[in-house]
Amino acid sequence: MYSPFRKANKGETGGHGRSKSMWKIFIYRSSSSAKFDKNDPPKELICPIYGCLMFDPVVVSSGQTFERTSVQVCKDLGFKPQLPNGLTPDFTNVIPNLALRTTILSWCEKSGAEKPQQPDYYAVEAIVRASTAENLPSSSSSSISREDSRIRVSERELLKGVAENPPVLLSHAATELNPRNNHHFYSPSSSEESVIANNSPLLPFKTRPSCYSSSSSQSTSSEIISDEVPSSASTSSEDDYYVAQFKKLDVYDQEQAVISLRKSTRTDEEARVSLCTPRLLSALKPLIVSRYAGVQTNAVAALVNLSLADANKVKIIRAGITPLLIDILKGGFEESQEHAAGAIFSLALEDDNKTAIGVLGALQPLLHALRSGTERTRHDSALALYHLTLVQSNRLKLVKLGAANTLLGMLKTRDMAGRVVLVICNLAVCQEGKAALLDANAVNVMVGILRNWNELDESTQENCVAALYSLSQGSLRFKGMAKETNAAEVLQMVVEQGSERASEKAKRMLISMRRRMKDEDDDEEEIDWEGVLEGRVSQTRY
């Protein structure tokens, strides 16, 4: 066996004669007769902070080795523990201690001990706080800072999370709002602002998923069974009750617990925030992927309710639930898929979540659900795609998925046109999206939609004109395609019958098109073709 550490004695000196009091890495081979007791691991293999075998040991700047999660907890709390030798570790930089990790795994194999698992962040935090409470900041301030911090995960880690989690499904909630009063529509996180966000006056869309209802009268069949929340769930530590119920083996108990959670969080904003703890989210995850329809559907619906609170949105993403929702969209119970689309839509309202959701692979399942899901699934998938494509990286991903043809085809579906055109507007503001849409004959499709002017609601009219306007900006191809489809006639109709905004955009496009045609006609008249043919004038001049 290899043991990587021993502690330098006070009398030991470094290479320059200076006393060094830190952990030094060295290797020794134990005798063949050494015994391995799985209940008594060598102290060198145990994290001094967490007190357990290290899953991912790292060497910090001052030379000691700790579990990586322990280092992260201390850094987040601004806390530096004092070691038994009186030293204070420096957590500025960390380097993976691969030799020690190999030693730990070897010891586990020889002793028959279970290999260490990655410790839960909040469990480590609780241990640190419990052991040194007087030296730590208040839990409330640290919790707030964690909730407000951005997601610190790489694309590789996020994509790995998608592959490791099984499929699941969900449903949504909705209350119509005037988007001019809704910051979620007007605060895109990307530097390139959406055409819709800047130019459309009325968005007849929701900031809550379609499956959500504050009234039990609109509940679906699987939604609510029990009339009262158990009294044990109404204490100050409600999550304890739910966590205990979720972990029971009886499927009936699990179903009643998620139904109770769904009812408790239906309209109570405070309950949504207080119940959305890391422990509860962790216990809820297995129920989201349950093979029992009642458990799965109500678990996802309860998650939708929790996601409606702004304070919970980043927390839910960080809990690793997004991959489960994505898998539900790919293959779950129909009602669960409705809830899954609604949950992703709700989570996508938070700017800090948009990039992470796209990286995790939600765009393709949402695009598929847009075509083949139920009405509620399609509506929420469209709105989720709209909010996600406020970020440039997600626009590029959607273009690479060949979404242009799909979205233009969906415009012909009368009940979906208003939502789909929002996504098209977002794609049209970037060069890659504009090129893909023009290749898919978007001008002809959009002009065809506008010919049925009186059949469109005002917001769809304006957004179709806005999409055309974005396509016309800086594009020579647009002029030729517009001429082929006789777009000038339709734009003139928009000028006469459209709203002030739609009319203004139509005028600008008409002026631009006529100026281009006039310039071409002037060039045609100025050329002395006879002189060119006789060789008296150089054609290259023209």
UniProtKB/TrEMBL annotation:
Residue ranges with Low complexity bias: 214-224
EC category: transferase
Entries under Pfam families matching the protein: Arm, U-box
Keywords: Repeat, Transferase, Ubl conjugation pathway
Region (Disordered): 172-194, 214-236
Pathway: Protein modification; protein ubiquitination
Name the record gives this protein: RING-type E3 ubiquitin transferase
Residue ranges occupied by any U-box domain in the UniProt entry: 40-114
Coiled coil: none
Protein EC: 2.3.2.27
Catalysed conversion reaction: S-ubiquitinyl-[E2 ubiquitin-conjugating enzyme]-L-cysteine + [acceptor protein]-L-lysine = [E2 ubiquitin-conjugating enzyme]-L-cysteine + N(6)-ubiquitinyl-[acceptor protein]-L-lysine
A GO term, aspect molecular function: ubiquitin protein ligase activity
